[in-house]
Design brief:
CATH superfamily: NAD(P)-binding Rossmann-like Domain
Distance between the termini: 30 Å
Number of helices: 11
Structural class: alpha/beta
CATH topology: Rossmann fold
Number of domains: 1
Shape: globular
Mean pLDDT: 94
CATH class: Alpha Beta
């Protein structure tokens, strides 16, 4: 289904975004690749054939309408938009400076909203398209040390659910994917309480799902027209299911994890997405 389609991917320079780009290119898609690291985007583009490298800062909201116009005009359409760019967090709420919340919400929630709002009307006018949001297990479960990240990822789910409800009858298919631990730099790039970069990875991420495996599962879900996919196994999958079936038990378990020293352990060993 992706052959000769045009897909726009944010956060395409590494991790899940780069894996999705390569997987879509292998299926015959043309790609608009966006992110901040031009060198890394160009390296991904060399693996992907027909590409437009369109770097930009995700929170430069004023620039987004013109960028969306350029992306659309490249092939005369955008068949799919992947809102993938984001940044995580590793800090207790009580310690976290408010600017950290401002940055996380801007990058992980307002930026994908701004881009979708710029693309959605054209997609509707063109008769349809697909919008993909890369949320997280933390978008369904309020995860310790991730209060800002969870807030943004929960919001991402809610926004895209509403867009789906409003526009499905107009040919807009919306997919929300919630990965658990995937082998990316998410932990290294996470923000600490003062807004500085964490700079280290951890066993959960390093032993997580390979990005190409995650990308293959996502494309299979798109082909099957699945609106939502919890892309996690074991404990990470189970806590999402528990949030839906028995939230009181989940809340007690999360509190117990913190009381048992989770925050201190994370400061040394790190954790998942």
């Amino acid at each position: 289904m992706f052959d000769k389609q045009c897909w726009w991917i944010t956060g395409a320079s590494s991790g899940i975004g780069a894996a999705l780009a390569r997987a879509l290119a292998a299926r015959g898609a043309s790609l608009v690749l966006s992110g901040r690291n031009v060198t890394a985007l160009e390296a991904v583009a060399r693996d992907c054939g027909d590409t437009l490298v369109l770097p930009f800062e995700a929170t430069d909201f004023g620039a987004i309408p013109a960028l969306a116009e350029r992306a659309w005009q490249w092939k005369g359409r955008i068949d799919g938009l992947v809102n993938n760019a984001g940044i995580s967090q590793r800090s207790l709420a009580v310690d976290t400076a408010f600017p950290v919340y401002q940055k996380l919400i801007a990058v992980d929630l307002l930026a994908p909203i701004a881009l979708t709002q710029a693309v959605l009307p054209r997609m509707v006018q063109a008769g349809g398209g697909r919008i993909v949001a890369i949320s997280s297990v933390a978008g369904f479960v309020g995860s310790p040390l991730r209060s800002a990240y969870s807030a943004a990822k929960h919001g991402l789910v809610g926004y895209h659910d509403a867009v789906r409800a409003e526009n499905e009858h107009l040919g807009i298919h919306v997919h929300v994917f919630a990965p658990g631990s995937v082998q990316t730099d998410v932990s290294k790039n996470a923000l600490l309480a003062d807004g500085s970069r964490r700079g280290v990875s951890d066993a959960a991420i390093d032993n997580g799902m390979p990005p190409d495996e995650a990308a293959a599962a996502m494309l299979a879900a798109i082909e099957a027209d699945e609106p939502e996919l919890i892309l996690a196994t074991g404990f990470e999958h189970d806590i999402v299911m528990l949030r839906r079936s028995d939230p009181a038990t989940l809340f007690a378990q999360m509190s117990a994890v913190v009381r048992a020293g989770y925050a201190k352990k994370m400061a040394v060993d790190g954790g998942g997405s």
